[in-house]
Amino acid sequence: MVAPAVLSLALMMTSACATQHQQAAINETRQMTSAGVDSLTDAEAGAIAHKLNDGEIELARIAVSNATNPAVRDFAQMMITDHTNANAMLEREGYAAAPNSAVNALDAATNHMKTMLNGANGPGFDRAYISGQIDMHTNALSMVSKNLAPSAQDPKLRTILSDMRRTVEMHLQRAKDLQNQIGR
What we know:
This protein is mainly alpha-helical. The protein has helices spanning 4-33, 42-66, 70-92, 101-118, 122-151, 155-182. The protein contains 6 helices and no strands. The longest helix is centred in the N-terminal third of the chain and has 30 residues, at 4-33. The chain is elongated.
């Protein structure tokens, strides 16, 4: 059996690796917009937003099955519902996940988080999931606020991204509240 301190350190290191991939996605998005906000097309911004939602849905499905704390399971179910709804709005307007360098980096971040979560159980799983959610929502908020929304030209996409920003802010606050309840 792995000592709790070793498991906690391993989970933090894996979480840091996922955060590095998220940061890579942010950097890729910034590079895509470095020539000016108009250089990120609506299709690219929509694809990145869609992939942000996809990652949250994938991780939340794992959490719904594996979380031991009912509040964490409820949070994960909220992630599935809210991010599925956001993707439905994007898809109604013709924005779906499409390959680009930022989307690829987001996939890598999600895969690292899935690996981390699949190696955890019990209260350690709950803490790892919520810690990852804080990191992911912090990075998503930055990406939506600083890159995606400012570059969007389509008024419908701008509205979706504005709604998404408010939802991500609410999710981030809820994750922080949960972390205070269950511990780090």
